[in-house]
Amino acid sequence: MENVFKNPSLNYLSCRKIQLYNHLLQNGISIEYFYYNALESSDNVFTEIIINRKRKWTFSSNLPNSWEACGIAAYFLPFEKLINVKEILNDLLIHHTSVFIWVDNKHVSHNLNLDPNLNHSLQIVSSIDDHTYLIDDIPTIQGISYNFHEIELCCDNAKPHKKYLYYLDFHNYEINTEVVSRFEELLVRFIHSYEDKLSFYDYLVDFFSSEDAIESRLDELFPYLDDAFSIIAGSRHLFAKSLEAFEINKLYPQLYIEISKRVEGLKLSLAKANLKGEISRQHFVHQVCRIKTMEFDAINILKNGDDHLLKINSYQLQKVRPKPILLGSSDSTLKIGWEEQLDNVWSNSYEVFKNGALVGTTASRYFVIKGVEPKNTYEIAVKAKDIFGHKSELSEALHVYFDPQENNNLALFKEVFSSSDENTFFCKESIVDGKLDTRWSSNADEAIAWICIDFNKVIIFSKIILHWEAAYAKKYRLQTSYDSSNWVEIYSNGEGVGGKVTINVHGEGKYLRIYCEEKGTPFGYSLWNISVFK
């Protein structure tokens, strides 16, 4: 199933709007052109979410509700009782036309977490017979069976102004150069009329600077901050897709992709801090100030094509010299880290050098150097890069004498591959970092997902320890391979319950893959850590 947001953390749209845009995407519609005005003002988000205490699903987003410009027709069919339009409903489904309905949350049986005082949107995708229907509840729940009486109860108790069938007709859909030009004009007009005083970020600086405010108000304010960050990160993600589709300038979408990532990082860091009850106020203030500067730079570059900003960033980056440190080592690897560069807000990647030779580039603040040999000294240095292509000077060299301590965990700091990562924070590398507070998570829309460790040589092992997060695999297999193409199954579990799982099993190979086939929850598959022992 296609999803507008592969990363659910970015979803800020109301239930009906996300269902409709997902429906457009599934029908092959070029929805990126409709994102021309997706950029939500942080001032408006601040007013609606933080001051007025609205939740993100009630936030009125900029995205259009009509697509007539490219020939997509929308139809409303009001009713007092659903039974009065049952024949029309069945006829639409027979002709493979999905129908959207509003339902009273108190009568929705598949999701008991909905606010009982509100109405919710559902998509009827097909009928099994005249009285049985399959429902999708985007973004994660699909193919739920409801009989007509159950749907009737849900619809007939909805609010009067929401009693209607809604469907789209794509027969006259067309995206041609004239339509694209019209959308591009709307984009340019939107950019030049866009205003944002960025007052939300000033509020956040004041909030995170005050220890008393955090201690007394964070619990109450957290869900609203979380919603606000979702709206800002998600809207910039969609706006970047629109800028990419119009191909005005290759740099423009990168600006907003980077801002979206930074805001999402702030959102996830705050969630972790709130859960632990510990918060680094200085870290959050630095990140908020950085994002505010990025927002200011980005819209000015779009409005003015401001080369002056590029020159300033180039000069700032030249002053940056990351300082590498040794974070850890295994039998054949060195894990190198460095502090984030705050002088240049747009620095977003790093080049790592071993004995003067480039060994890799990373967007993280650490890098694992493979193929190092004991009893040798290595000279490690780092360069910072920014989104504009500028590079810093080479850092001072870190000299490491490699004499690894005995470590029985063969998976530690090894290279990892996965079918997907939910985001850059719940990423594949987390399962081999030796920590139990970082994790990997697959995309929620993957029914089957996998994660694979490359040991860089053939190993023999006898024990594996898996630490599942709450989103565990109910059914999974462990497989080994010498070439990453031909796999041998060494273990399977069809009744997984998550938690810590110790598996005593003989295995041999260069690769180990955890192949997840059935979810224990509606979300993706998620692991805290994998350890492999001789």
Structural account:
Helix 6 (199-209) runs antiparallel to helix 9, helix 7 (211-246) runs antiparallel to helix 8 and helix 8 (251-276) runs antiparallel to helix 9. The protein is of the alpha+beta class and 534 residues long. Helix content is 31%, strand content 29%. A hairpin with a 3-residue loop joins strand 4 and strand 5. The chain is built from ten helices and 20 strands. The protein folds into four domains: 8-36 and 56-169, Cysteine proteinases (Cathepsin B, Chain A, Alpha-Beta Complex); 177-315; 321-402, Immunoglobulin-like; 415-533, Jelly Rolls (Sandwich), CATH 2.60.120.260. Strands 14, 15, 16, 17, 18, 19 and 20 form a seven-stranded antiparallel sheet that branches. Strands 2-3-4-5 form a four-stranded antiparallel sheet, sandwiched between helices.
Class by SSE composition: alpha+beta
CATH fold-level topology of the largest domain:
Cathepsin B, Chain A
- Number of distinct helices: 10
What's the gyration radius in Å? 26 Å
Please sum up the structure shown.
31% of the residues lie in helices and 29% in strands. With 534 residues, the chain is of the alpha+beta class.
